[in-house]
């Protein structure tokens, strides 16, 4: 008997024998539910035998038999009633446990988000994506067959989603394309660092989603609940189903604020801020302006995160502001990084270290933020240095800029599209899914080993568009992505270290060295960031104009 815990109230396993009941009693179970019909297997004990053993052990038992592969809606209702009525925790079994987990999944559909249900089942070794439509439909079998259908469906209306829609629309205006995204507002997130540094106004980084969706592209304003790649279908909240010939997946990352104990309760007050949220970036600048002395902590969680340079950008612009005001000598800057290096591409580190020294910042590597007490103004870090026992350290702060832990969205992590780590599993060159050949992915949610930046999406979108058009024409992939990413490191107001690199940390400069030497701080790079990149984003990238982003032809070796 191999017990698998589904929730605090329920564990399951495959077939048990009367002899197993005593062990269930010893482990604290108070009830048993049988979901396997008698006579299904030659060596299978009857429910009456299990019931007698349960009575002898002082456990309650209930018989809710379900034929294999035929879980009915009423069965799920009965199972939910059993969980409410029987003393818990409850143990349920069938031949393998799958029917029991299916019944639980359907019975919990109105009480739990689908992603949580699929996650719990997956953690126990059961894939419930096959009943995702029924879970989305409140545990009932859908009867609506009038599903929407498009040539191309794009999940996510962020930088990658709108850019690839525009690139596709420009190439093939006749394509019937739909973007699925529930958001009303689209944000230029690379601008939030500048908002936190007092350079941009927050409102200048936001536009309505409707104003950016390309003309002729449908906008489905809804959240995705699950994927059915075997049926070429995306399931929306409320059990609406959208069918596709080809699918592009680019919903962005989930900022997991709740992973840091106490963080959500104190964000935006008590000196706790983050440039990773539109409404908090102005608070960062407010804190910087108010601060004349004390300790300022800047945190960076374990990778991957979007724009890995953003946590230190906040530190540099803050340090520069304090330097210019003449108060830097009274401010203790601490950069607490869960990783072991300042920046992942070594060529840019010397220039950054000059500014670490200028701002007298202390670098604390292998320090991962795990808890914040806003009212006490303390932050607790788990310290996990190589070849040393893990420990914790608590630091006082007057201001703390937090970069939250980040993961793929729940509906991605539990989907058939994800790899073992929860990211969409693509070929890193063509960005096509490794298993489903009519699915592509770009942006922060896929598993290619590149930096997760808007600049990366700017290069990826034309690559995906070119390869989809080639696929529609019956050909193989024609464009390749080389891992390009860019991180304009704002080391002071008026100067930037323009990091541009591809797979393996190979430098990928866009400009001649005499104009911008990316390994050194420059005024030209600042002008690019402040004056040129925002309009390029709004009026080129999101409009299908691929300035300096033309897709690279796929090499013979890559094929």
From TrEMBL:
Q: Name one GO molecular function term.
A: hydrolase activity
| Keywords, ordered alphabetically | FAD, Flavoprotein, Oxidoreductase, Quinone, Transit peptide
Domain FAD/NAD(P)-binding as annotated: residue spans = 150-266
Signal peptide (UniProt feature, chain positions) = none
Q: Pfam families recorded for this chain?
A: BLH_phosphatase, Pyr_redox_2
Q: Which domain of life is it from?
A: Bacteria
Q: Name one GO biological process term.
A: sulfide oxidation, using sulfide:quinone oxidoreductase
Instruction: List required co-factors.
Output: FAD
Q: Pinpoint the Beta-lactamase hydrolase-like protein phosphatase-like domain residues.
A: 3-110
Which SUPFAM superfamilies has this protein been placed in?
(Phosphotyrosine protein) phosphatases II, FAD/NAD(P)-binding domain
Q: Which NCBIfam families match?
A: TIGR01244 family sulfur transferase
Q: Which PANTHER family match?
A: SULFIDE:QUINONE OXIDOREDUCTASE (PTHR10632), SULFIDE:QUINONE OXIDOREDUCTASE, MITOCHONDRIAL (PTHR10632:SF2)
Q: What name does this protein carry?
A: Oxidoreductase
Q: Which organism is it from?
A: Methyloceanibacter caenitepidi
Q: What is the lineage of its organism?
A: Bacteria, Pseudomonadati, Pseudomonadota, Alphaproteobacteria, Hyphomicrobiales
